[in-house]
Design brief:
This protein is mostly helical. 49% of the residues lie in helices and 0% in strands. It contains three helices and no strands.
Length: 87
């Protein structure tokens, strides 16, 4: 969680790594570098992620999800069980 600030505009003359946000910025940069090293966030990865999102939305993985649900939870999804619950 980021530190509470005074909601004032940032001072453009102060380097971000010389502020109270430095540890958060450094952590984000570290994670970003790790993602890049693992092949994530590249143009190819983003294209594949976008394609997979479309496939999930079209139901391409529904059968797999149902099989995994039973394997991991030990039971199939029963919509009757949730009747009467408000969403």
């Amino acid at each position: 969680m980021l530190p509470l600030g005074n909601n004032s505009a940032p001072d453009p003359d102060v380097h971000p790594l010389k502020t109270s946000y430095a540890k958060y910025i450094k952590h984000f940069i570290y994670e970003w570098e790790q993602d890049l090293a693992a092949g994530r966030n590249t143009a190819k990865w983003q294209r594949e992620a976008k394609q997979a999102t479309g496939e999930r939305m079209s139901g391409a993985y529904d059968e797999w999800k149902e099989k995994e649900r039973e394997e991991h939870w030990g039971q199939k999804y029963d919509p009757e069980h949730f009747k009467g619950f408000k969403q």
